[in-house]
Amino acid sequence: MLTLLAFVAALALLIAVHEWGHYRMALACGVKVLRFSIGFGPVLLRWQGRSGTEFTLCLLPLGGYVRMLDEREAEVPAQERHLAFNTQPLRARAAIVAAGPLANLVLAVLLYAAVSWIGQPQARAVLSEPAAGTLAAQAGLRSGQWVQRLSADGESEQEIESFDQLRWVLTEAALAGQDLTLWAGSAPQSATDEYRLPLSTLGPVESADVELFARIGIVAPWSAPVLGELLEQGVAARAGLQAGDRVLSVDGLVVRDAQQLRQLIRTGLDRQGNGLAQTWVLERRGNRLELTVRPEPQGEGPQRVGRIGAFVGTPPETVTLQEDFLGGLLQGLRRTGEVASLTLGMMGRMVVGLASLDNLSGPISIAEYAGKSASLGGVAYLSFLALISVSLGVLNLLPLPVLDGGHLLYYLIEGVTGRPIPEQWLERLQRAGMAVLLALMSVAVFNDIARLLG
Predict the structure, then answer these.
(1) DSSP-assigned letters across all residues of 37-66
(2) Superfamily grouping for domain 227-315
(3) What would the pLDDT profile of 271-288 be if each residue is shown by its tens digit?
(4) In the CATH hierarchy, which top-level class contains the domain 135-216?
(5) CB 423 within 8 A of CB 410
(6) How far apart are CA 128 and CA 357, in angstroms?
(7) In whole angstroms, how far apart are CA 421 and each of 132, 418, 424?
């Protein structure tokens, strides 16, 4: 139920803001708006605004529209012809069309700013032990190091305050094929050493997923290798492990953090995919113990990994990042720009075949993310809304027929040639654009279903 409510609320808000942008700009340009509708299907609520606009809220909040006075849709009285959309100068029509997606981008700025004003605890940028062979391990990074600042391809250095910020910069640099220079020390404000991460050697990066960070070697913030809750009759419980046990070594290898321990558990299988007996040395209430643990294989084929039926790790050390009013707005602008750039870049990579269409997510995935973010609290949900608002704004600005960006392209052509595109060509372009959108939606829904079944 929470997932459904969070999804519907998000859709209603983002659609309302988008259409409100069209509506307010239309009024500002002197265009008469006949109806402002959120959703489709049976009307649930209906009321009349001061401007004469009819406002409606419909049963299915899967879209919306603003209907303006327009000679192309119905006959317009001569005395109202100056209020019709199609009689407006080119700049006014372009402004009305652009106002919808721009409203979504402004909303994203305010939402990200609100997240900065409220503040939220974030894991500090303290590294776990990178797996052998990863870029981080080859660069010499070690468990427990604090990343204090970094630079992408010689650009100006930026301070790093949280692990989320570090992952974001890694994502941007990996997708852009940029190398990173990191400065990390043993503690905050301590002397730092310089490390080089040659992310360009990763080759074309299709998406910023778990596999990408595993290849880089920076997966999770540092947490102690302490066991939490155990499953009844799980591997850990049968081996005699208890919640609160601190693991010191596995098969003679010193365990420095929880991420390293998780990796040792995951890889604790032989070539046939059967669990290997591991010798664990641990500390329990001041006493040193030695136990044999055999990870249990889970998954299929090459995806089989070891599991022990226990939560591994303690909550990472956190820092609460909070901005003042101006700082929050600047952070909102910066984050919106970064997400928009990343979204456009990923779309471009999919168009040219450098990124898989598997990265497309449909309504099922969005609803799932909405529910998860809502369950994590208000700040997480605001961040989710901001992300979707940016995506909606960017998507609608694409020069694709039936989208706002397509209409802006028509107006650009009209401005250059001095005459509008013929109606018959507009109809053909609209049909082609609808076909492309339906194809993309089909792929997105297929990906959703594949993820659910997988």
Answers:
(1) EEEEEEEEEEEE-TTS-EEEEEEEEEEEEE
(2) PDZ domain (2.30.42.10)
(3) 888 999 999 999 999 999
(4) mainly beta
(5) no
(6) 32
(7) 60, 10, 8
In the residue annotation, 19 being an active-site residue is answered as: yes
Mean per-residue pLDDT, 17-37: 96
Q: For residue 148, is pLDDT > 90? A: yes
Choice among 19, 129, 206, 296 that is catalytic: 19
**Starting from the edge strand earliest in sequence, which strands make up the sheet with 180-185, in order?**
158-159, 146-152, 180-185, 192-197
Nearest to 165 by CA among 190, 182, 189, 144: 182
Helices (H), 187-257: 210-216, 235-238
Q: What is the mean pLDDT of the chain?
A: 88
d(C-alpha 300, C-alpha 205), whole Å: 25
Q: What is the pLDDT of residue 362?
A: 61
Size (the chain), residues: 454
Answer for the pair 361, 374: CB distance below 8 angstroms, yes or no.
no
Beta-carbon contacts of 345 under 8 Å, excluding residues fewer than 6 positions away, are 175, 176
227-315 has the same fold as 135-216: yes
Burial of 78 (0-12, 13-18, 19+ CB in 10 A): exposed
Q: Is the dihedral of CA 299, 304, 310, 312 positive or negative?
A: negative
Most confident of 16-30, 154-168, 329-343: 16-30
Report CA 163 to chain centroid distance, whole Å: 16
Q: Domain ranges for the chain, please list them.
A: 89-119+323-454, 135-216, 227-315
Q: Which residue has the tokens 């979204």?
A: 343
Find the helix or strand (DSSP H, E) in which 319 lies.
strand 318-321
| Of residues 227 and 439, more confidently modeled | 227
Nearest to 250 by CA among 239, 240, 261: 261
Residue type present at position 121: P
The string of pLDDT tens digits covering residues 197-255 is 999 998 887 777 788 899 999 999 999 999 999 999 899 999 999 999 999 999 999 99
